[in-house]
Amino acid sequence: MNKKTILVTGCAGFIGSNLCRWLCDEGYMVVGIDNLSYGTLENIDPRVIFHRKDIRDPEIYPLFEGVDTVFHLAAKNCLIDCLRNPLETSEINVYGTVNVLEGARRAGVRKFIYADTSAEYEGIMDFPSRVDRVCPISTYAVSKRGAALFCESYRKLFGMRITVLRYFNVYGPAQDWRRVVPPVMSSFIMKMLKRERPVIYGNGEKRRDFIYVDDVNRFHLMAMNDERLDGGTFNVGSGINYSINDIFSAIENILRTGLTPIYREDLPGEAQITLADISRERTLGWEPKVSLEEGLKRSIEYIQSKVLGMSLL
Ligand SMILES: NC(=O)c1ccc[n+]([C@@H]2O[C@H](COP(=O)([O-])OP(=O)(O)OC[C@H]3O[C@@H](n4cnc5c(N)ncnc54)[C@H](O)[C@@H]3O)[C@@H](O)[C@H]2O)c1
Q1: Ligand 1 centre and the CA of 242: distance in Å?
Q2: Could you tell me where in the chain the CATH 3.40.50.720 domains are found?
Q3: Catalytic (active-site) positions
Q4: Are 30 and 48 in contact (CB under 8 A)?
Q5: Which atom of ligand 1 is nearest to the CA of 211?
Q6: Which superfamily does CATH assign the domain made up of 5-170+210-236 to?
Q7: What three-state secondary structure class fits 276?
Q8: Is the CB of 155 under 6 A from ligand 1?
Q9: What DSSP string describes 66-130?
Q10: Where in the chain do CATH 3.90.25.10 domains reside?
Q11: Is the dihedral of CA 227, 282, 119, 185 positive or negative?
């Protein structure tokens, strides 16, 4: 039994809840912080010691005592919501991150891992994206950059061991399907299982690098335990991209609904292409293992059994 204590902010969200379950299965003690603004209680594994708190609140500092590693995932990350609320976005994503860094610094936490985003590359039309060039434009991306810069500053000023992970489009069980504009995989699956036509914004030719959440969790474990990743920034993507139309077809191939998508006006501020350069990550011994088809099947099974209560495929 591994008794190290790991603190996860955003533990009730999509990636955070999957990470917590993974860590509990690996034998770690897990402390979770979330204010449930987006995440839900049902997402949280019962083994997690959960604190309903806001990352902006200094009341969280005592929770860092005795913690080995912090995964900082809590953020305001719905693009449209961020665009409409820039002040709150910077408060949560920048100020909130500094508050979490402060908690970790004061308690002498061994390792800090920050959840960054491929949106940092949105202004660069040169693919695949390499970690050394960023050009954030949107409110969301700029706020995530600001937080990443504070991580860099804490690393240099205080010698903290910090790793920045730039996630591409992560998908899998517990992806939030309730949002006004839900993530593409979960929204398509939900609609198609209910025999409703899914909505595609734009012409469906935007290409995204999708990565299954279990592959991300294998990267999390490596970031936590492998000193070669200290002080570095890494792309967590698959190195392959698919158009939104491809994703619709892949789900349709599994579900055979006969439905066609509804095309609506494009959404503002969305990148046309994302594609990760993962050559450096591969040299560390990590590579994505879950194929798109397998990842979609697992996501469908989850939504069928946990959300809609239908029988499995
Ligand atoms: N999902 C992706 O594809 C993706 C891609 C790139 C980056 N990221 C980053 O990964 C992280 C996790 O993303 P996710 O998809 O799991 O998002 P999510 O919205 O499902 O989870 C974020 C969690 O943070 C919580 N939270 C928000 N504000 C808070 C606050 N002030 N105090 C405490 N908790 C708060 C929410 O309630 C939610 O449970 C985020 O930092 C996001 O920017 C995600």
Answers
A1: 23
A2: 5-170+210-236
A3: 140
A4: yes
A5: 3
A6: NAD(P)-binding Rossmann-like Domain (3.40.50.720)
A7: strand
A8: no
A9: T-SEEEE------HHHHHH-HHHHHIIIIIHHHHHHHHHHHHT-SEEEEEEEGGGGTT---SSB-
A10: 171-208+240-307
A11: negative
Q: What was the pLDDT predicted at 231?
A: 98
Q: Which of 243, 214, 239 is nearest to 302 (CA)?
A: 214
The alpha carbon of 258 and the centre of ligand 1 are apart by a number of angstroms equal to 34
- Cα 75 to averaged position of ligand 1 atoms, centre (Å): 4
Among 3.90.25.10, 3.40.50.150, 3.40.50.300, 3.30.930.10, name the CATH number for the domain at 171-208+240-307: 3.90.25.10
Q: How far is the CA of 131 from the centre of ligand 1 (A)?
A: 21
Find the DSSP H helices in the chain. Answer: 14-25, 79-84, 86-90, 96-107, 139-158, 184-193, 213-225, 244-255, 279-283, 292-302
Q: Is 113 in the pocket of ligand 1 (CB under 6 A)?
A: no
CA distances from 81 to 51, 140, 181, 182 (A): 25, 9, 10, 12
The closest-lying atom of ligand 1 relative to the alpha carbon of residue 40 is: 39
pTM for this structure?
Answer: 0.97
Assign 309 to helix, strand or coil.
coil
pLDDT at position 200 is 96
d(CA 131, CA 271): 17
User: Is any atom of ligand 1 closer than 6 Å to the C-beta of 39?
Assistant: yes
Q: Give CA–CA dist 213/302, Å, rounded.
A: 13
pLDDT tens digit sequence for 182-211: 799 999 999 999 999 999 999 999 999 999
